[in-house]
Specification:
The chain is α/β, with parallel strands linked by helices. Helix content is 47%, strand content 19%. It contains twelve helices and ten strands. The protein has a six-stranded mixed beta sheet, sandwiched between helices. The chain has a four-stranded antiparallel beta sheet with strand order 2-3-1-4, sandwiched between helices. Strand 9 and strand 10 form a beta hairpin. Helix 2 runs antiparallel to helix 3 (60-75), helix 5 packs across helix 7 (134-153) and helix 6 (114-128) packs antiparallel against helix 7 (134-153). The model is unreliable at 265-283 (pLDDT under 50).
């Protein structure tokens, strides 16, 4: 038996390819089912910056080849394109890689804490469907322990920050008087909540939350004394905003340069994209 991993991340693949490969929690079982038809076990780790498929196979080359083929077929990516932007590891290297991932070594923001919970969630989904057997279950549990030890016994998390924290720091750099800025948060999940609390802590007073599902944004808006606007008003909200932080689970970017140009909003200033998170700053 051999452990193999095939993946792409922010260092190997452009955002367009990563968006096509990204899997929501509802889509992951489809990949797991297909992979387990060719291998003995499988776990899929899908985050905003990476997609990795771990498998236990009879042979290394066969396992890697099967996973690449399945990913290409399911996510409609040409084999040549996927091969050009992916990496594959086996056995000791695959194990060491997962330990590094769980520890935040390979994150866009090194040491960020969210990846550890994402590793746990990946294992839970795989175990829930019977896709992770004794080998990968033990491996992922060990990775979670390694991640915890890295954060308590080393300095990797000393200055660690999430992507949303970095976005807020960028906004503060360009808007020293953040309390005067109109700030739009697109999405109301964990990353948006972290950004909102960070913004409040640094003096932001004019927060607006836009989310597709109204119920998800009501509590956050009420707790942070923020204004909530329906998703249908996104274009208008962009026009009125000085800072926009987008953090959603959508498979592709919602705020595009074209949308911002149509609204004649912050795109007239600086537009920088950090994977699925974007910071739009009007200058």
């Amino acid at each position: 038996m051999h452990i193999v991993v095939v993946g792409v991340d922010h260092t190997t693949a452009p955002i367009e390819l990563r968006e096509r490969l990204a899997c929501s929690s509802r889509q992951i079982p489809q990949v797991l089912t297909a992979v387990c038809e060719e291998t003995q076990e499988s776990v899929v780790l899908s985050t905003c910056n990476r997609l990795e498929v771990y498998a236990v196979s009879m042979g290394v080359e066969e396992g890697i080849r099967d996973v690449l083929r399945i990913l290409g077929e399911l996510r409609q990516v040409e084999a040549e394109e996927l091969a050009a932007h992916s990496y594959s590891l086996s056995n000791e290297q695959a194990v060491a890689h997962l330990m590094g991932v769980a520890s935040g070594l390979y994150s866009l923001v090194p040491g960020e804490p969210q990846i550890q919970g994402q590793v746990v969630e990946a294992l839970e989904i795989a175990q829930g469907g019977g896709y992770a057997g004794p080998i990968l279950s033990a491996l992922f549990r060990a990775a979670v322990v390694a991640g915890k030890r890295a954060r308590t016994e080393t300095g990797i998390s000393r200055n660690a920050a999430s992507v949303s924290h970095v976005a807020v720091q960028l906004a503060r750099h360009l808007f020293p008087r953040l309390h005067e800025a109109n700030v739009l948060l697109l999405g109301s999940g964990t990353m948006s909540e972290l950004a909102a609390r960070n913004l409040r802590a640094h003096g932001a007073e004019r927060l607006v939350i836009v989310n597709r599902t109204i119920e998800h944004s009501l509590d956050l808006a009420k707790e942070l004394n923020a204004r909530r606007r329906p998703f249908a008003e996104l274009s208008e909200a962009l026009v009125e905003s000085d800072v926009v932080i987008s953090s959603t689970t959508a498979p592709r970017a919602i705020i595009t340069p074209e949308l911002m140009e149509r609204g004649n909003g912050p795109a007239a200033g600086t537009f920088s994209v950090i994977d699925r998170y974007c910071v739009c700053l009007a200058m």
